[in-house]
């Protein structure tokens, strides 16, 4: 289940307080959203120190220019978009999900074992996410990004269009093709097909 | 291209649907409940789409973020804020306030990312007045009796609450540490049970066992007939004398009567008026504090849970915190408070001991 459901920030109120110069509101904002910025930023920049500096700068700039920022802002979207622009200006381009980032991920995750073994060992729900994870990793980087923006970040189609520099209609097409691709991958192993059919997902 | 579950597409591309599934709140819940009521035939597809979205949500955290890195960012920004405050506000205005940095970090550590920070939810400095229950320990079990003429709330350490009607009592393991959460009830009560699939909750009345599969229900007894009424969720009721323990499932808006003499269960349904009566008169107090002395929070917890909390008034007199821990279990409440005041707690022989240093 997604976290943070019971008590959500009242974003609008928080933003208003931030804009009026309330340091507590600012603190709440950066403590809440820095994680998301790192997660998002890793797609472009695997140099953690660089990324850290940029995120810090981003917040400080935001605080210093609080008087001139728009009143009505979806905070997470605003921050992710600002970070993306910052990264692009600094010449960090998309990178694929493989390579360095994976190397970094492996430090944290369990060592890669045989997928079937893991499935047998783990609970059904875990194995579902393992299979799905693997299917998502096979997507193109744009497809991966849209899956993250839509289902992890929960951004609207319009926000995604702006973020990914696409037409509104193209967002739907890309999302649709990404989901189709996931299904295709899942179908290649009979085990996962059976598993997913059990849950009526994607079929 | 092969198609995925087509029927779900209309939901998946709907911004409002995604918002609701990922970030439900009162407003969008109402909206979608109304939508479902108007389109009952669509509910299976909606559930399927919901399942897909949740699964994708869980599968796509882009990368775990190194705590060390986060700490560095927070420290740098905290410093920046402090620096600006010094220049803008020469008067030290926030002496009492807990460093928000420490507080957040504590909460994050405990909840693994589920953060309940609410510095501005509650304006007034209210200390919830929890039950006036009499309590004592017997055979290592906590017994709590409502001797007042009114309903009283008894909190349980797992986050559940029990509204005891006048004269009712419960007996249970103070910290509910066993694999099954067991409460012995005498009298009438309304239970609101915290979900914990790994540890079923069972209420024993003298004759009947009630195994809780879901959330809230009431128990009352009139002239030897026990009545169990379900408000939300699902429960299973069985006769303790029945060796096979054949159980009866009771669903919301239904009740079951059990006559002790005939040992027969009789199901029944409820009209609206009865349902309204079912609502407990007392609403459990909120554990929400704005710049409140920890000593008075400990007092409130003591009386809500009937568990003695030993904390030195001398040491902690100056510790103030702002937090909302209403929906936490007892131990998480302790953890959050202790982390905030840089103290630690131990549980020994049914009591809690807080140790730490004075706050400046």
Automatic annotation (TrEMBL), chain A:
<keyword id="KW-0804">Transcription</keyword>
<dbReference type="InterPro" id="IPR036388">
    <property type="entry name" value="WH-like_DNA-bd_sf"/>
</dbReference>
<dbReference type="InterPro" id="IPR013325">
    <property type="entry name" value="RNA_pol_sigma_r2"/>
</dbReference>
<dbReference type="Pfam" id="PF08281">
    <property type="entry name" value="Sigma70_r4_2"/>
</dbReference>
<dbReference type="InterPro" id="IPR014284">
    <property type="entry name" value="RNA_pol_sigma-70_dom"/>
</dbReference>
<comment type="similarity">
    <text>Belongs to the sigma-70 factor family. ECF subfamily.</text>
</comment>
<dbReference type="InterPro" id="IPR013249">
    <property type="entry name" value="RNA_pol_sigma70_r4_t2"/>
</dbReference>
<keyword id="KW-0731">Sigma factor</keyword>
<dbReference type="GO" id="GO:0016987">
    <property type="term" value="F:sigma factor activity"/>
</dbReference>
<keyword id="KW-0805">Transcription regulation</keyword>
<protein>
    <submittedName>
        <fullName>Sigma-70 region 2</fullName>
    </submittedName>
</protein>
<feature type="domain" description="RNA polymerase sigma factor 70 region 4 type 2">
    <location>
        <begin position="131"/>
        <end position="180"/>
    </location>
</feature>
<dbReference type="InterPro" id="IPR039425">
    <property type="entry name" value="RNA_pol_sigma-70-like"/>
</dbReference>
<dbReference type="InterPro" id="IPR013324">
    <property type="entry name" value="RNA_pol_sigma_r3/r4-like"/>
</dbReference>
<dbReference type="GO" id="GO:0006352">
    <property type="term" value="P:DNA-templated transcription initiation"/>
</dbReference>
<dbReference type="GO" id="GO:0003677">
    <property type="term" value="F:DNA binding"/>
</dbReference>
UniProtKB/TrEMBL annotation, chain B:
<feature type="transmembrane region" description="Helical">
    <location>
        <begin position="103"/>
        <end position="121"/>
    </location>
</feature>
<dbReference type="InterPro" id="IPR012373">
    <property type="entry name" value="Ferrdict_sens_TM"/>
</dbReference>
<dbReference type="Pfam" id="PF16344">
    <property type="entry name" value="FecR_C"/>
</dbReference>
<protein>
    <submittedName>
        <fullName>Uncharacterized protein</fullName>
    </submittedName>
</protein>
<dbReference type="GO" id="GO:0016989">
    <property type="term" value="F:sigma factor antagonist activity"/>
</dbReference>
<keyword id="KW-0472">Membrane</keyword>
<keyword id="KW-1133">Transmembrane helix</keyword>
<dbReference type="InterPro" id="IPR032508">
    <property type="entry name" value="FecR_C"/>
</dbReference>
<dbReference type="Pfam" id="PF04773">
    <property type="entry name" value="FecR"/>
</dbReference>
<dbReference type="InterPro" id="IPR006860">
    <property type="entry name" value="FecR"/>
</dbReference>
<keyword id="KW-0812">Transmembrane</keyword>
<feature type="domain" description="FecR protein">
    <location>
        <begin position="148"/>
        <end position="235"/>
    </location>
</feature>
<feature type="domain" description="Protein FecR C-terminal">
    <location>
        <begin position="287"/>
        <end position="354"/>
    </location>
</feature>
């Amino acid at each position: 289940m997604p976290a943070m459901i019971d008590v959500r920030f009242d974003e609008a109120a928080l933003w208003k307080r931030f804009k009026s110069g309330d340091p507590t509101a600012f603190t709440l904002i950066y403590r809440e959203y820095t994680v998301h910025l790192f997660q998002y930023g890793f797609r472009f920049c695997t140099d953690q120190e660089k990324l850290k500096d940029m995120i810090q700068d981003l917040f400080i700039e935001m605080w210093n220019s609080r008087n001139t920022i728009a009143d009505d802002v979806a905070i997470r979207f605003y921050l992710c978009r600002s970070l993306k622009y910052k990264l692009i200006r600094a010449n960090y381009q998309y990178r694929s999900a493989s390579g360095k980032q994976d190397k970094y991920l492996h430090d944290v995750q369990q060592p890669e074992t045989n997928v079937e073994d893991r499935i047998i060992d783990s609970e059904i729900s875990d194995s579902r996410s393992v299979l799905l994870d693997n299917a998502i990793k096979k997507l193109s980087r744009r497809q991966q990004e849209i899956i993250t923006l839509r289902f992890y970040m929960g951004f609207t189609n319009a926000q995604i269009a702006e973020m990914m520099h696409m037409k509104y209609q193209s967002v739907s097409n890309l999302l649709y093709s990404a989901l189709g691709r996931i299904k295709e991958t899942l179908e290649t192993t009979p085990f996962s097909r059976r598993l997913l059919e059990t849950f009526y997902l994607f079929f | 291209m092969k198609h995925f579950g087509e029927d779900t597409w209309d939901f998946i591309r709907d911004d409002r649907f995604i918002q609701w599934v990922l970030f439900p709140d009162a407003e969008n819940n109402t909206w979608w409940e109304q939508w479902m009521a108007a389109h009952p035939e669509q509910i299976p597809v909606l559930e399927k789409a919901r399942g897909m979205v949740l699964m994708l949500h869980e599968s796509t955290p882009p990368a775990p973020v190194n705590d060390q890195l986060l700490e560095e960012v927070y420290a740098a920004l905290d410093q920046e804020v402090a620096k600006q405050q010094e220049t803008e506000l020469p008067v030290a205005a926030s002496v009492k306030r807990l460093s928000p940095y420490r507080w957040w970090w504590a909460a994050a550590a405990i909840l693994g990312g589920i953060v309940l920070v609410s510095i501005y939810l509650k304006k007034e400095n209210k200390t919830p007045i929890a039950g006036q229950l009499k309590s004592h320990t017997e055979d290592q079990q906590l017994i709590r009796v409502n001797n007042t003429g009114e309903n009283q709330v008894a909190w349980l350490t797992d986050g559940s609450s029990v509204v005891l009607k006048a004269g009712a009592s419960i007996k249970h393991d103070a910290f509910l540490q066993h694999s099954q959460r067991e409460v012995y009830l005498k009298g009438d009560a309304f239970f609101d049970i915290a979900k914990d699939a790994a540890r079923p909750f069972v209420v024993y009345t003298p004759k009947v066992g009630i195994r809780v599969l879901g959330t809230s229900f009431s128990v009352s007894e009139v002239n030897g007939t026990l009545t169990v009424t379900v408000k939300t969720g699902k429960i299973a009721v069985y006769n303790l004398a029945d060796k096979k323990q054949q159980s009866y499932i009771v669903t919301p808006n239904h009740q079951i009567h059990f006559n002790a003499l005939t040992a027969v269960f009789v199901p029944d349904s409820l009209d609206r008026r009865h349902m309204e009566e079912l609502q407990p008169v007392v609403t459990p107090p909120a554990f929400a504090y704005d710049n409140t002395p920890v000593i008075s929070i400990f007092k409130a917890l003591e009386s809500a849970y009937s568990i003695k909390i030993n904390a030195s008034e001398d040491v902690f007199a100056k510790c103030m915190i702002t937090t909302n821990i209403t929906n936490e279990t007892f131990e998480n409440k302790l953890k959050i408070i202790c982390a905030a005041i840089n103290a630690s707690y131990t549980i020994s022989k049914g009591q809690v001991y807080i140790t730490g240093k004075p706050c400046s």
